[in-house]
Amino acid sequence: MFIARQPIFNAQLEVYGYELLFRLNRQSTQFGGVSSQGATAMVITGLFESGLENLIEDKIAFINFDEIFIHSEAVELIKPDRMIVEMLEDIEVSDNLMERLTDIKAMGYCIALDDFAQTYQTYPLTPLADIIKYDIMITPLDTIAADVPTGLAQGKTLLAEKVETEDEFNQAKEMGFSLFQGYFFSKPRIAGRSIRATPTQIQYLKLMTEIHTDEPSFERLADLIEQDVTLTYRLLRLASFRAGSELISSIKFALSYIGLREFERWISILMIHELSKDKPTELIRISLIRTRFAESLAKRAGMFDQEHDAALMGLFSVLDAILDQPMEVVLAGITLPQSILAALINEQGSLQPIHELMLAYEKGDWAVVEAAAEALKIEDYCIYHDYREAINWAKNVIGNIA
Fold first, then answer.
1. Among 51, 80, 268, 363, which residue has the least CB neighbours within 10 Å?
2. Are residues 223 and 147 in the same domain?
3. In angstroms, rounded to a whole number, what is the distance separating the alpha carbons of residues 182 and 164?
4. What is the SS3 assignment for 29?
5. Which residue, 126, 123, 141, is CA-closest to 180?
6. What is the C-alpha separation between 295 and 204, in angstroms, rounded?
């Protein structure tokens, strides 16, 4: 079973919920949902048994339903405050369906209409809908300008889907949309922005450069760290936590206790967090999820000597969006292994299959996921396990650095 999540934002670019994208197995070909009642029931049951909160944390899940599965009692396994029932665009409307949706609304569930391209005033499901999702690639914003005021006047929440640029986000927001879904938030806004690093960020870059010299020195690293009191405090706290009752007496001893590789990962996460302060929190969350996910995938593929590089590749994969610059520009100032640069800049090299699988899984591009997993000899069931574990790991890291 594959399950991924795609964030849905409010107008302040805070995550409102996640649409769950899933496929039960290699024979199930639907994107987002599956057409078989039994297959979808197994996914819902799996979410219930494994703990939905492990996948969506404290947010709400948008889950697709078809005209068959909507009648299943498995719908009620997930509480109304944790799930929005999303009706597929090609659903066959019947009296039986209308009655079932009326009952579901009475239980407290919200109903969303997916990829809405119907005639607003006459479509039978419109009165039952709480949220109307417009795929703005299928129904461009200019073509629905007349329907938007009507929907807002009737108390509908409007969601713009497939939002790929900041201009589209701003236009939809001005029209009255309050929820937004797409990859606009993770793309760099390149025009007119130059990189101005703060003293703290410069310090991180100096540390990264020293780590990747032929013979990195704990003494030179310690000298750089002690120039930043906050960094010194954080390092000593981290080492003390790891050491338990053992006394950490100096920065140099803390470094030797943690080890260069763990220190590099830690300083890289702090750097990404520092750089992304004026960006949506979801961007740093995705960066951290990719860190752990890519590392796990490398391990599953038997690439044991590249686990660490895979983790850094995942971590830095959103750096262009954070700094609003092309990837080759932002990575030019950081000393990194060639395998990471090749994957992130040229989509080549030994880490590229991991990079491809990681991105395809996020988007629910299951055909690419399966082909990449087969090439890497990774079992399907391992991928969802590692993805879910990466979400939990990222949540804990954010809690420690926020």
1. 51
2. no
3. 6
4. coil
5. 141
6. 22
Is there a contact between 9 and 18 (Cβ–Cβ < 8 Å)? Answer: no
Contact criterion met (CB below 8 Å) for 258 and 266: yes
What 3-state class would DSSP assign to 133?
Answer: strand
Structural domain for 280, as ranges: 199-401
327 and 374 within one domain: yes
241-293 per-position pLDDT tens digit? 877 767 787 899 899 889 998 999 999 999 898 888 889 999 999 999 999 99
Comparing 149 with 202, the larger pLDDT belongs to: 149
Q: Are strands 179-181 and 2-10 parallel, antiparallel or unpaired?
A: antiparallel
3-class state of residue 18 by DSSP:
strand
Q: Which residues contact 43 (CB under 8 A, 6 or more apart)?
A: 1, 3, 22, 24, 34
Distance, CA of 355 to CA of 374 (rounded, Å) = 15
350: amino acid identity, one letter: S
Q: Ramachandran region of residue 144, left (φ > 0), alpha (ψ -120 to 50) or beta?
A: alpha
pLDDT tens figures, 257-269: 899 989 999 999 9
| 218 and 133 share one domain | no
- Residue 36 structure tokens: 């078989």
Which of 132, 163, 186 is a domain's end point? 186
DSSP 345: I
- Cβ density class 335-351: b for 16+ within 10 Å, e for less: ebbebbbbbbbeeebbb
Q: What CA–CA distances, in Å, run from 332 to 17, 276, 288, 326, 375? A: 35, 18, 21, 10, 31
**Phi-psi label, residue 349: left if phi above 0, alpha if psi -120 to 50, beta otherwise:** left
Find where tokens 């949902």 sit: 33
CATH number at residue 319: 1.10.3210
DSSP 66: -
Look at residues 186, 217, 238 and tell me which one is the last residue of a structural domain. 186
pLDDT at 194: 56
Give me the phi and psi of 111, to 5 degrees please.
-115, 130
CB atoms within 10 A of CB 223: 13
